[in-house]
Amino acid sequence: MSEAATGLIDTRVRVAVDTPQHSGLTGPLDYLSERALAPGSLVRVPLGKRELLGIVWPGESEQDTDAALLRPILGILDGLPPLSANWCALVEFAAQYYQRTVGELALSVLPPQLRELEPSQLQLRLKRVAKWAAEQGQRSQEESESKPELSEAQAAVLAELDTLLQAPETPPPVLLYGVTGSGKTEVYLRAAEHALAAGKQVLVLVPEINLTPQLEARFAARFAGVATVSLHSGLTPAQRLRNWLAAHLGEARLVLGTRLAVFASLPQLGLVVVDEEHDPSYKQQDGARYSARDLAVYRARLEKVPVILGSATPSLESWQRAEEGKYKRLALPQRIGGGALPRVRLFDMKTLPVKKGVMTALTTPLLEALRRRLERGEQSLVFLNRRGYAPVLHCGECNWKSDCPHCSAWRVFHKGDRTLRCHHCGFTERVPSACPSCGNMDIAPLGRGTERLEEQLAEALPGARVARIDADSTKNKGELEAQLAAVHAGEVDILVGTQMITKGHDFRRITFVAAVNPDGALFSSDFRAPERLFALLMQAAGRAGRDAEQAARSEMWVQTWHPEHALYKSLTTHDYEAFAAQQLAERESAGLPPYAHLALVRAEARSVEAAKAFLDAAAAWAKQLPDARQGVLIYPPVPMAVARVANVERMQMLVESSSRGALQRLLWQWLPELGALKREHRGLMRWAVDVDPLAI
Hints:
Zn(2+) 2 binds at residues 404, 407, 422, 425. Residues 165-332 form the Helicase ATP-binding domain. The protein has 17 helices and 29 strands. 31% of the residues lie in helices and 21% in strands. It folds into five domains: 2-108, GIY-YIG endonuclease; 120-336, P-loop containing nucleotide triphosphate hydrolases (Rossmann fold, 3-Layer(aba) Sandwich); 339-387 and 449-587, P-loop containing nucleotide triphosphate hydrolases (Rossmann fold), CATH 3.40.50; 390-447, no CATH class; 597-691, Alpha-Beta Plaits (2-Layer Sandwich). By secondary structure, the chain is of the alpha/beta class. Helix 1 (85-97) runs antiparallel to helix 8 (292-303). The chain has a seven-stranded parallel β-sheet with strand order 9-10-8-11-12-7-13, with helices on both faces. A six-stranded antiparallel β-sheet has the order 1-6-4-5-2-3. A hairpin with a 2-residue loop joins strand 27 (638-645) and strand 28 (648-657).
């Protein structure tokens, strides 16, 4: 970093820095520089007693501030090209829309190691990136895997995408609606190939980290001579810095990543792909609560490049925009090879004989179906979206249950390490030998999680090779890859798991999928729960019969107490369009998204009274604003679904409007007042605003 020379310093520059929320500093700050600096340049600046990394921000500085009061820039990151004007525009839009400061968001999406590097260290990193890129370029393109023959539908979709890629005007977003196994990934690969051939960079977003390595392997196999990097939270700080620098310098031509990668600096961006665009993982749940899918669409519009949103079960927001003609919908209605989608069978749990005690998840007919697949040497998948051995331990004598002393939730029984673990605050204790309340020695698990299901399957089907994939069984590095490799190699007969195994995985040998106990989401207070359940079950069904030769005998069982429910009726015919039409009609009549726009104001405090007092005061202030009297509705505060976590009480207040503009105007005026209110309400710990919330 070159130090600013002493002498005449008279050029004003605006610099975005990460200022604390309570400081009241919301925009870029003015500094003095010895020379003009290009917008997007990275600099070191003083703020109070600290020295911070900042970004020279586009726009005019405040000329009415006395230059004598301004502090000089301490240094400039030499050798690093400035961030582009479009990158700055993306961050500025995201900060305004999601109600954060520009500096906070801009600095949070850069690699943390950039803040720590000395000039000599930065030069060393840049040399390493150049060396790495040279090595990538030496790999022969002849090593690339051969390309499969395209289906008619794939060829038609690609022809449309090519037209958009070459169009002089800004192309509309493309919603690629393709059934599971229809070859969406091959479309991404071919579209990426065409963009790369045009000298462009490609950004591919996936919802979760565990999908990044396998997609990276697909792209690396296809593009052997193309520098490819990944960006996600599973990387070490050094890996993240190297990959970010490779993309920023234009050395990496392909960037794959999770939601954070939407902010990757790509100076020659030519194509954006969002795989499984419906997935809730694209919404950040803390800090700047942005939607990477929505920002990918905005970024593509800024850069005037195509964006592909791919899904077998698109989000209702994207589907509605396609219905209105704002998005271009392209369809892949058939599986590759002409294979049939798995037959869906609803098993009515009410037909089973009534027995005393809790009904078992592993019904006799289900075990028989699994046994038949075993005899044929086929693989099965049993899906239960609840990890651990059992959701709760229970005493039959005094009705004690294993609640968490710090949260309004149960602690889950994990049999493997004999612990009771809270999945909200992490509080863990050894399983008591007797009931802590009455001393009864006979305390028993109530309900079941994947750990218990795995054990029961092994007992009921001796000789079957049962494996479990969930957040507990794959928490150590390399475990997920090893387990997936075992499934692909045919070393597993029955795979048990949570939603982790329903997304994106191409299991060629699985012919049977069973969903155990999915009914809970049907009657949730969250209006999005049916949409999420339908997507999850469609994705789970899509893991079966991906090999065209086995597709005809592939099957999915759903064990349900409500087989007559409209959601299950649409599932049996794989009719997403009917489900979407029914859900959109319900949402329109109820005035819910996408026909309304929402924000949540959340408050966390040591007591319920403190959280409620803050939200009540905030609502009273907001209701005086003109926008609140013209179409913005502020609901009374209510506790969150899990009201207490780690001894912190949590409440939320819903704000609703039919006009996105009116909602944004109200929030923009409201936020400075919320900061002032926090100082008045001493019991309040934190507050946050969530625009377009996914979980209510």
